[in-house]
Amino acid sequence: MQITFKCAFCVFLKLTTMLTNSALKGKDTGILIKAIFKGSPVSVSHGANRRLLVYKHCIPLCESGDLQTEVASDIIGLLMLETHSLPGHALATLASLYVDAIKVGEMNSGRSLELFPTILTALAATEALAYGKGKLLFVKPKLFFTHFCLEHEENCIFCVRDVPLSAEELQFLIEKILRMFLKLDLQEIPPLVYQLLLLSAKGCKKLVLEGIISYFKKQDQLQKEEQRKGESEDVEVQTIPQDQLRHVEGTVILHIVFAIRLDHELGREFFKNLKVSVCLDPLCPFSIALLLSVARIQRYEEQVFEFLKGAVTKNFKDDQIQHSSKFLQELLPQCNSISDMILDTVKNSVFGWDHVTQGLVQLGFILLDSFGPKAGAFGKVTEGTSSTAKTPNQLACRLGGQVLLESFKMHEPIRGEILEQVLNRLVTKTASPVTHFIDLLSSIVMSAPMILLESSSKVTETFDQLSYLPLSTVQGLLKAVQPLLKVSMSMKDALILVLRKAMFSSNLDGRKSAVAGFLLLLKNFRILGSLASSQASQAITSSQVQADVHSRYNTAANEAFCLEILSSLRRCLNQQADVRLMLYEGFHDVLRRNSQLASSIMQTLLSQLKRYFEPERDLLPPLKLESCISAHGDQVFIQEPLAHLLCCTVHCLLWNQNIQSGGNVSDDEDGEDEEGGVQSELHAILESITKRMIKSELEDFELDKCAEFSTSSSVGVKNSIYAVLVMGLNEVLMEYNFITANYNSKNHFEDVLELFKRYHKVSEILKERAGKGRPMSSKTSRSLLSLGFISTLLTALFRYNSTQSREESLSVLRSSGDFLRYSVSVALQKIQQLEETGHTDGPEGQSPDKTFRHLCDITSVLMWRYTNVPSTVEDAGKKEKGQSVSLLCLEGLLRVFTTVLLRYPTRMSNFLSSLDVSGEGEAEGEGSDLTEQTAFYIRQFQRALMNQLSGGEEEFNSKEAQLLVSILSVLSRHLNPSSQQFVQMITWTVKICKETNFEDISLTKGLLSLLFNLHVLYKSPVSLLWEMCQDIHSQLGDIDQDVEVEKQSHFAIISMKTAASTTLLVLSQVGKVLDEVDWLIAKKKGQISSDRTISGNTPKTSNTPQDPIEKAVTIQLGTLLTALHELVQTALPTGPCTDTLMRELSRTYSILTTLTKYYIQLCATQPGQLPARLEKLVKLSGSHLTPQCYSFITYVQSGELTAGGSEKLKKKKKEDEAVAAASAKVLRETKAIPNLIFNIEQYEKFLILLSKKSKVNLMQYMKQSTSRDFRINAATLEAALQEQEQQQDQSQHDPDWPNLIRKQNHLHLRQPEGEYIFS
């Protein structure tokens, strides 16, 4: 026995020596192994043992690293072929050998690991065998992966890839590996992810993807927290270097994209998982980058961008819903902003993520194209600029621009593509607004002007299309690229060439574009010696260009260039009125920014004005108006906008004179003399025109009360043009004489008043003609007074206190109530224009800073005038035609606050600080925060409203009260909802609504709207709605006239007269509450889906407390049902009230159905007892609301429209017939009733299903539905026939009784059982 063992051992040594020598030499190793296997049959024990010895020797030999790769591969290949012939105990021994080797780290090269899956596969085919000390071992792959070391996880996955695994084993393995991610070194993650993706071909794709995304999401969050901590403590704390993490993320993304490209089932699982998870939490930067990389696969491209578009808008909408409701803010945490995530993705892409950059460009342009401003009626832009973005669409558009701008800054390869696509859209999108693309181009130019010079050819190609583009696009484009023109001679020359061609274009817009371009060049190519931009106006800065224009172009070159442009522009003075108008409106800005051109500009204006000026002093009128009009056949149109020419002349003259008086005089004495001569001549002409315009009568202009102003005849059009010109000329002269008077000349102020009287006379004639219904122009012409002058004029009229002589001069203007009203009306017009367009006509109207300053001054005056001279005092003192000045001031204040909120939202604090109400030179609330400043002015308007409400009905001014409430609504938006001032505002509003009993419908609407808007930011308004519904029920009475309603009055503002309008407001608020509830239920349904897919079913015990969101939804719906229970019993007037109530009832039942479906879904995933609150809600809906809904339907259909009280009012026969006809019309046109009944029945259907699922009988609370078929109730029919016979007996002598009987027979009779009878 011993000899046999020694012989066997010797044979083994010889075999292993032979194998080792052969393998090291690389000769005939395969032949040797085959020979050994042939001589070692498995059927005999020593043969199987010999084969096992060969395996045991060859595996470490291959791992030693001493063999050539080809030799080791051949050996492993031969061993794999013979593995399935090994007996079970040999396979178990080899498997244990591998496991022990992996544990102790002997698998260095990993060459033999290819054999391991084959061993496991063969072993898996063996169900059971005796192994190790006689114990029975069930061979499962799970056994070998329970205690693996971290460094061998990749090898483990590789080994198990080809091994058949059950779903449970695969899930166990993947979950174990994913848990180990956090313990691994970052550099080991990519190869492990690669192996996991290969393993996902067996299943658990969703688990693999979720685990990978979740890991990198946590890493990103950890990195952000470390950055925040480092910034707050000024200490750099980095567990993982940022660049290393980003590079690893980029590699993993490439692995996943490659796997999705090969396995489309993995791609479908990826999108499925994201759609579920995005309902709960927005995407993270890693998942966004992964999506954009997947978009490179053509079949997924459209799906990716549609998903991202939806995710962006959903996130913005959710954020908007949550911000607008305190109830939702307290219930849910603030969701992460997807815009921050996308912008983080852009920042992360700088770490070599080339596979993401193209997707970022596509996403940016898709957002801009999809959510950019749209053209409304008549080409009007329906949405504001990106700087004041508020709606989800505007925010998404702004995000697209930010993505493209940041991508342009960070990635050089895509800059050309971004610029080309932006310019292409400017050229091709002529029918829709392109302001968002212009803003993007401007930002790109300002951020990297020198880089853009490399793509100057693309810009010059766009210049060739200028004459075909809309004027607004041309102006925006030229303003955006203006900094480039200062540093690129070729670009400037190309633009000038295009503009010269456009000057002679047959297209009017082309010529206007040429004028706009030349004016822009004149503004920005200043001649040395001109005033600095800080002295003149805020110029377009080009500090980022890092080039001095005077170093590139000398003074002589600039001057020659500007004079050449001016000579080209003079040709425009013979073109159409629109072209001339553009020139006149631009000359003043050119003069302010390029003061050395004053002489040329003034000379041009003088020569043009002389063409229409009558030099003879006694000739009336002083201007040739007939030369300003042209006729082409029967068509009459204006040729010369003479009033604008005079306006431009006056503004340029006064500005130039002001600069010279300030000491900013040119050194050129000849030029100064020439300029002085022009100015003197212009002053003389203007004085002559003033005197003669005062002397002129309307007949001198062929205008009088008998003149025709119809737009349907050429004479009427001509007279209308004359009237507009005369009014404009008088306005310009008023401004000129007021400024030149300098408060010292009473005669000049008298001239101003006389000019106004001429203006007012023409204006009254036009209003009179319009009042008679004759077709007039659709729009009142804009005032030519400048915003700066209006500011000065109002200050002088209302707040100017100085010497007695100046007061005497101003008293001339103050004595005219019409002039005061006119001044405030023009201010209103300018503010409205600023609100609609963002700028005003006239000097400084295009400068946001100057406009803002003037707006502050005007508001200060209006505020002082209104608070110091109440309208009651004014009305008592004077009874003049038209609105009072105080009321106009109040309307102006409302417009100002609205405009500042829209156009200057970030400067509201500066605006309120600048208002000087006290008159002592210091603004109230200065130095405090915005909430305190706003609260100060809110108190001012609250006092004014209390004065209105505290007086009698004779002193009550409805319009003033409405304006005050509107102002309070606008100002209250700036209060911090968590501040004490906000609580005080709500308390005051509730008190006013409870105590005010003025039966004014408009005031009621305003106050209740204010109350709702405030209350929703304080807490849920459902209890408020309930009380109001009780008041409405009390005021209007019950649908059953025999029922006497308990008189309740929570809010005195709700009366018999205002109840109907209040009902519509209440129902509107009910709709908003239902929207919130619906949104919450959708959130919870998404959470259930996500929990079910991630964590599986977790049974819910009966002791588990109800989810706070479920509880809140149930309470909200319960209170709403109670409120609606009051309304459906109320005798509402037919029409909008009943229709709206039907719709909201229908929505309520629809949402109750959605809630029922949610609990059905919950019962399927988390079996447990239904919450008690839900049962109460079902009981409330079934026993209280549903029966009353059917009664209300009967009430609407039967035409019982008489509201209130137990007394039955007797109606005349004609009124009865009209009511019946109205009821029939409502029945024909409305779909609300069948929709309501359908939703009730759907609700009951799903309640039955929920009862079966939960084993709780919820239908016990539901009463049997009203029968709505055509069955005849015999008893009711007999009673109706008897009543009919009695009426016939009583009405025998009435000639109309047959008609009355016929009408009665067609009415739906309401029965106590809720059944219907039809005759």
| Secondary structure: number of strands | 6
Radius of gyration from CA coordinates: 43 Å
**Lateral arrangement of strands in the main beta sheet:** 1-2
Query: Helical proportion?
Result: 55-70%
Q: What would the average pLDDT be, to the nearest integer?
A: 80
Strand proportion: under 5%
Structural class: mainly alpha
Main pleated-sheet profile: 2 strands, antiparallel
Shape assignment: flat
Helix segment count? 54
Précis, in short:
Residues 49-260, 356-519, 784-1011, 1025-1278 form the FANCI solenoid domain. By secondary structure, the chain is an all-alpha fold. The strands form 3 sheets. Strands 1-2 form a two-stranded antiparallel sheet.
Notes on the protein architecture:
- The chain has 1319 residues and is an all-alpha fold.
- It contains 54 helices and 6 strands.
- Strand 3 and strand 4 form a beta hairpin.
- Helix 1 runs parallel beside helix 3, helix 47 packs parallel to helix 49 and helix 48 packs antiparallel against helix 49.
- The radius of gyration is 43 Å and the shape is flat.
- Keywords: Coiled coil, Signal.
- It holds the Pfam family FANCI_HD2.
- This is FA complementation group I.
- One of its GO terms (biological process) is DNA repair.
Write the layout of secondary structure elements.
Blueprint: H1 2-25, H2 29-38, H3 45-63, H4 69-82, H5 88-104, H6 115-124, E1 128-130, E2 136-138, H7 153-160, H8 167-179, H9 189-199, H10 205-233, H11 242-262, H12 264-277, H13 285-294, H14 298-323, H15 326-331, H16 338-348, H17 354-371, H18 392-410, H19 415-428, H20 435-447, H21 449-452, H22 456-463, H23 471-485, H24 489-503, H25 508-524, H26 533-536, H27 549-552, H28 555-570, H29 577-593, H30 598-610, E3 629-632, E4 635-638, H31 642-661, H32 669-695, H33 714-741, H34 746-771, H35 787-798, H36 804-814, H37 817-837, H38 848-868, H39 871-877, H40 885-903, H41 908-914, H42 930-950, H43 958-972, H44 980-995, H45 1001-1015, H46 1022-1036, H47 1059-1095, H48 1108-1127, H49 1136-1165, H50 1172-1198, H51 1213-1229, H52 1232-1254, H53 1274-1290, H54 1297-1305, E5 1309-1310, E6 1316-1317
Antiparallel strand pairs: 1-2, 3-4, 5-6
Helix pairs in contact: 1-2, 1-3, 2-4, 3-4, 5-6, 7-9, 8-10, 9-11, 10-12, 11-12, 11-13, 13-14, 13-16, 13-17, 14-18, 16-18, 17-18, 18-20, 19-20, 20-23, 22-24, 23-25, 24-25, 25-28, 25-29, 29-31, 30-31, 30-32, 31-32, 31-33, 32-33, 32-34, 33-34, 34-36, 35-37, 35-38, 37-40, 38-40, 40-43, 41-42, ...
Coiled coil: 1267-1294
Domain FANCI solenoid: 49-260, 356-519, 784-1011, 1025-1278
Keywords: Coiled coil, Signal
